[in-house]
Amino acid sequence: MSRHEMAELGWDACDVVLVTGDAYVDHPSFGMAVIGRRLEAEGWRVGIIAQPDWSDAEAFKALGRPRLFFGVTGGNMDSMVNRYTSERRLRHNDAYTPGDEGGKRPDRAVIVYAQRCREAFKEIPVVLGGIEASLRRIAHFDYWSEKVRRSVLVDAKADLLVFGNGERAVVEIARRAAAGEAVRDMHDIRGTAMMLKAVPDVCSVVDWSDPDIVPAPSEGKADCVRLPSYEQVNADPLLYAQASRVLHQETNPGNARPLVQRHGDRELWLNPPPLPLSTAELDAVYSLPFARAPHPGYGEARIPAWEMIRFSVAIMRGCFGGCAFCSITEHEGRVIQSRSEASILSEIEQIRDRTKGFTGVISDLGGPTANMYRLACRDDAVQRVCRRLSCVYPEVCRSLGTDHDPLIGVYRKARALPGIKRVLIASGVRYDLAVHSPAYVAELAAHHVGGYLKIAPEHTEPGPLAKMMKPGIATYERFKAMFEAAARQAGKQLYLIPYFIAAHPGTGDDDMLNLALWLKHNGLKLDQVQTFLPSPMSLATAMWHGGVNPLRPLGRRVAEPVTSAKGARQRRLHKAFLRWHDPENWPELRDALKRMGRADLIGPGKHQLVPKAAGTRASPRG
Fold first, then answer.
1. pLDDT value at position 527?
2. How far is 343 from 453, CA to CA, in rounded Å?
3. Contact criterion met (CB below 8 Å) for 109 and 74
4. Which residues contact 561 (CB under 8 A, 6 or more apart)?
5. What pLDDT does 311 receive?
6. For residue 204, what are the CA distances in angstroms to 201, 224, 369?
7. How far apart are CA 65 and CA 620, in angstroms?
8. C-alpha distances in angstroms, 21 versus 169, 228, 302?
9. Could you report the per-residue pLDDT of 245-264, keeping only the tens digit for each?
10. Which DSSP helix (H) or strand (E) runs through 17?
11. Strands, DSSP E only, in 51-125?
């Protein structure tokens, strides 16, 4: 991180310099640390510039001219999501910054950092990566500016963009750059995107830019798929939804074709997603010599994101849930990549032996979800051709294996390790999978829940749940009954903490009212609630912006309309319904209930939602 450290290592220059919006924590949960250590394992000299002053290119010269390229990432979160709430209010804290201090990264950090790298050393290639670049790789709706923006590659003026899990791609880029190949000419690496003057001659273009025209398959040449251009999706929300639909249908690495999207007089070319890492490859990543701590230069400064994960272990990557509001699948992939038992147990032992402050409690064994470990399609041939957006919606696919026994085995071996007192599960449990394994639910309740378990039904009403691609509330209630029975069997008093989303596309005021009544009937008074945030590239964002449902066939005459709560007043109301018990929300809820013709729900009765106005004695009984 400094010239002094380079001198101690005997380096006159770095081969690769990584620029990141996060503090440098040398831990496998931080993307820049994984990429840095992976490059180091190949023999490259890697420097890291963490949270530089973006107002001056001098900060980007701190480690000198990199020999191969700059690698630029906004950090573990999209910088706009990191800096602003769902109501577009500026956050004053940043969990990835020493002292939880806000303001240490710019808006749209990937673009700003790339521009400063260019100013620092104009001739050095710039490669974008991380989740911010990954989810902005095509023309995308930007919630904060309320407009469709070009691919981040165009605005950043970068040479190459790496999306998804980038270990293989970055190593190949470094090898080929060292051999003398120009980074901007590396057109064939999976999981990368670049700008071209024209589509390669060897590729036959299948044109999906018009939802009313179904293209005929081509013959004789390798296919690539044309998305509606930036100019088209910017002008027509239906075509934006079409681009989103087609992109999501081309995310299975077994059958995905290259995508092309015109931006002005150039073509944005996206290679197919990276192939999943094998268990041995993933184990190798987690066996790299991480210091497992923040850089010593931060001293005793508190970094909340590090504190949250320092006693946890990631056991898998990816998610096949395909929830419309989530972008995990678009970034990490839909094929689950699992570590071996030996690798997981070895990391737990490292935490026990090397992590300062460890008291014997592992805070989590999980990943994007708690319980997709080693779950996969039962038939490789089926998986290679499948284009389903979700393996669990509208119901669990009959080809999906749901055996939780390998995960139960990991749990049992982890808690049996010497010096390990407890192993907790903090990642969200997919209850629609857990109900297929009573043994897993029993194991969870008996040994791995400290009192509360996070669960995410997200809503109760069929309309919103269909737009989210989430199971019906009956599945949640089935899991709840199983979990509570298992807790009683174990002699424990455990509770579920359900999470719900307000103002998701396809949600009306009546839907939120029914959810509020369900919450009251079940005695749930939520403290933390979330309002839908249209993140880049998600299917729900296409609904929000396009006003149509990309989960169904699109066309001028057949597109299913979707309404969204966009105004501040309606979004605030939907959030107020989730916190029906908060007296601060009662005046707004009373007014809304009267407008909705449901004044009968105002009063002290058990089946009423809010009390009458101030001056009445009674309040609603929970």
1. 86
2. 26
3. yes
4. 547, 548, 549
5. 97
6. 8, 6, 38
7. 67
8. 21, 32, 17
9. 999 999 999 999 999 999 99
10. strand 16-20
11. 69-73
Whether residue 51 is predicted with pLDDT greater than 90 in this model: the reply is: yes
pLDDT per residue as tens digits for the range 86-144: 999 999 999 999 999 999 999 999 999 999 999 999 999 999 999 999 999 999 999 99
Q: Select from 2.40.40.20, 3.10.450.590, 3.30.559.10, 3.40.50.2300 the CATH code of 3-196.
A: 3.40.50.2300
Q: Which two tokens stand for residue 194?
A: 């670049």
- What pLDDT does residue 618 have? 47
Collapsing DSSP states into helix, strand and coil, what is residue 496? strand
- Looking up tokens 């014997």 gives 360
Query: What pLDDT is stored for residue 454 in this prediction?
Result: 87
pLDDT tens digits, 146-201: 999 999 999 999 999 999 999 999 999 999 999 999 999 999 999 999 999 999 88
The answer to whether 354 and 292 have CB atoms below 8 angstroms apart is: yes
Alpha-carbon span 133 to 31, nearest angstrom: 13
Q: What digits encode the pLDDT tens for the residues 470-491? A: 999 999 999 999 999 999 999 9
Residue 429 is given by DSSP the state P
Q: Which helix (H) or strand (E) covers residue 287, if one does?
A: none
Q: What beta strand segments (E) does 358-490 contain? A: 361-362, 364-366, 422-423, 452-458
Q: Among candidates 520, 483, 510, 530, which has minimal Cα distance to 593?
A: 510
d(CA 527, CA 520): 14
* Structure confidence at residue 385 (pLDDT): 93
Q: How many whole angstroms separate alpha carbon 227 and alpha carbon 259? A: 7
Task: Tell me the three state secondary structure of residue 538.
Answer: coil
Phi and psi, residue 95, nearest 5°: -65, -15
Q: Does 622 have pLDDT greater than 50?
A: no
Residues in the chain, how many?
A: 622
Q: Using only the alpha carbons of the chain, give its radius of gyration.
A: 25
Please report which helix (H) or strand (E) contains residue 263, including its range.
Answer: strand 259-263
CATH number of 279-288+305-557+571-581: 3.80.30.20
- Residue 619's pLDDT band, with cuts at 50, 70 and 90, is very low
Whole-number mean pLDDT of the chain?
Answer: 95
Q: Please report, for residues 365, 448, 575, the alpha-carbon distance to residue 410 in angstroms, rounded to integers and kept in the order given.
A: 9, 12, 39
pLDDT score, position 330:
85
Tokens 């309040």 found at: 619
Cα angle: 151, vertex 154, 159; to 5 degrees? 110
Separation CA 294–CA 80 (nearest Å): 24
Q: For the purposes of burial, counting CB atoms within 10 Å of the CB of 192, is it exposed (0-12), middle (13-18) or buried (19 or more)?
A: buried
* 220 confidence band (pLDDT: 50, 70, 90): low
Identify whether the C-beta of residue 227 lies closer than 8 Å to the C-beta of residue 240.
Answer: no
Domain ranges for the chain: 3-196, 201-256, 279-288+305-557+571-581, 582-622
Using CA atoms, how far apart are residues 500 and 575, in angstroms rounded to an integer?
A: 10
Tokens of 32: 């820049």
**HSE on the CB side for 84, CA within 13 Å?**
18
Question: Which pLDDT tens digit goes with each residue over 377-387?
Answer: 999 999 999 99
DSSP code, position 614:
B
A 10 A CB-CB count for 116 gives 25
The answer to whether 562 touches 479, Cβ cutoff 8 Å, is no
Strand partners, 127: 71, 160
- Cross-strand partners of 496: 453
Residue closest to 503 by CA, chosen among 565, 563, 573, 580: 565
